[in-house]
Amino acid sequence: MDNRPIGFLDSGVGGLTVVRELMRQLPHEEVIYIGDSARAPYGPRPAEQIRDYTWQLVNFLLTKDVKMIVIACNTATAVVWEEIKEKLDIPVLGVILPGASAAIKSTHSGKIGVIGTPMTVTSDIYRKKIEALSPEMEVSSLACPKFVPLVESNELTSSVTKKVVYETLLPLAGKVDTLVLGCTHYPLLRSIIQNVMGPDVKLIDSGAECVRDISVLLNYFEINRSREEQTLQHRFYTTASAKSFAEIAEHWLGQKVSVEHIDL
């Protein structure tokens, strides 16, 4: 047993979609979360800057004595997950491989769509992972640079958001039977995305899929939190407004949260 918390990092609030799934599947585990909303979105930034920012978040989590780190950000996973995984002596998970695997299992036509930030799409990492696992798949990728700013500003249901999502996704509509939400912010727009793509298109939440891997690694390394340890102190940190972060977090997680502003 290991009662230390699991560390989550993201460019902003998007990683909360992973935390919500963790709380559902592994309610006895404790969470420490850092969201870099002050510098979001990461997607349009150069790779070296994303690498530097991600390492800052990792180093912050290490000061909190976490037993595992989850890079709950597709962009950061694409750029620097391999490097971080090699350098740390605790398990480090990314969200891309679980999402790619789930998409292959879901599709009937072999036509898979991937939406993500400009950096994630430019890296072509989803297509590479999907085709490495199943070469016959046909992958269509689409960058959605306007989605993360809409989520970070808590504009989840506005008419502007609906219009932006519709216009952005139009090139993929009717062309795929499975769509990977290749950014952990995107599940916060799930209902709008589903409306645009149609009811028959299966949406793959890469972050939620990642939680299954978290569970496997906790068991493998025998670092589950003791079920007898009842008191959980989830802690959330943001580089931007704690109030704004708390509003989104409490709405999404369905509970009161403790949020602290930090400067990196």
From TrEMBL:
Substrate binds at D10, S11, Y42, G43, N74, T75, T184, H185. It catalyses: L-glutamate = D-glutamate. GO terms for molecular function: glutamate racemase activity; identical protein binding. The active site is at C73 (proton donor/acceptor), C183 (proton donor/acceptor). One of its GO terms (biological process) is regulation of cell shape. PROSITE patterns: ASP_GLU_RACEMASE_1, ASP_GLU_RACEMASE_2. Keywords: Cell shape, Cell wall biogenesis/degradation, Isomerase, Peptidoglycan synthesis. InterPro entries: Asp/Glu/hydantoin_racemase, Asp/Glu_race, Asp/Glu_racemase_AS_1, Asp/Glu_racemase_AS_2, Glu_race. It holds the Pfam family Asp_Glu_race. Its EC number is 5.1.1.3. It comes from the Bacteria. Pathway: Cell wall biogenesis; peptidoglycan biosynthesis. SUPFAM superfamilies: Aspartate/glutamate racemase (SSF53681). PANTHER family: GLUTAMATE RACEMASE. Provides the (R)-glutamate required for cell wall biosynthesis. HAMAP family: Glu_racemase. Belongs to the aspartate/glutamate racemases family. This is Glutamate racemase. The lineage of its organism: Bacteria, Bacillati, Bacillota, Bacilli, Lactobacillales. The gene is murI.
